[in-house]
Amino acid sequence: MPPKPKEIIEIIPTKQIFVGDPKASVTLMEYGDYESEACAKANEVVKQLLENFKGKIKFNFRHFPLTKIHQRSLKAAEASVAAAQEGKFWEMHNILFANRRALGTTSLKLHSLEAGIASKKFLDDLVNATFGWQVQGDLKEGIDKGVKDVPAFFINGELFTGKPTYDNLSKAISAALRHSKRKTATKQRA
């Protein structure tokens, strides 16, 4: 009997995972690390921005684990990609930031239960680095875009160079919204 062909599993990459209005004219993207204090603070800022710019922005989080200083950040990132396969990326994302000092494999399994992950393969996927390539892809893309440290924000593809405070990001988003309105008005007149 011939060997059974391996099942091809389609993986949902992080670049396809957004929160906010899918039709929004402004995209806020962050490269971050789940063990980083600065990224945890930025995550709270992003939550505020999503609330205050409801219907006007969408947000995408990409992985940039600083493994030289955060040894557990890579597995945490893989855990969030695993969660994404069950539609639980954002639940896991927020749990990982809230528990950034407890990101060992056993803790990640507990966090997955809290996020509502039903997969019996979750631990196997972590141990076997099933989603490692997704994380490495984000990391490489970030390096190619000039990311050196986290958090690194992009607004409509442009690197945001200020300090990632609510006020600074809010002003940059408002400017991007005004710019997109002008572009839309110009197209309508043409």
What characteristics describe this protein?
5 strands; 190 residues; alpha+beta
Descriptive overview:
With 190 residues, the protein is α+β, with helices and mostly antiparallel strands. It has one domain: Glutaredoxin (3-Layer(aba) Sandwich), CATH 3.40.30.10. It is built from 7 helices and 5 strands. It has helices at residues 37-52, 73-84, 89-98, 105-115, 122-127, 132-144, 166-189, and strands at residues 19-20, 26-32, 57-63, 152-155, 158-159. It has a 5-stranded mixed sheet. α1 (37-52) links the parallel β2 (26-32) and β3 (57-63). α2 packs antiparallel against α3, α2 (73-84) packs parallel to α4 and α3 (89-98) crosses α4. The longest helix is centred in the last third of the chain and has 24 residues, at 166-189. It is globular and about 50 Å long. It starts with 18 loop residues before the first strand and ends with a helix. The mean pLDDT is 92.
Topology:
Layout: E1 19-20, E2 26-32, H1 37-52, E3 57-63, H2 73-84, H3 89-98, H4 105-115, H5 122-127, H6 132-144, E4 152-155, E5 158-159, H7 166-189
Parallel strand pairs: 2-3
Antiparallel strand pairs: 1-3, 2-4, 4-5
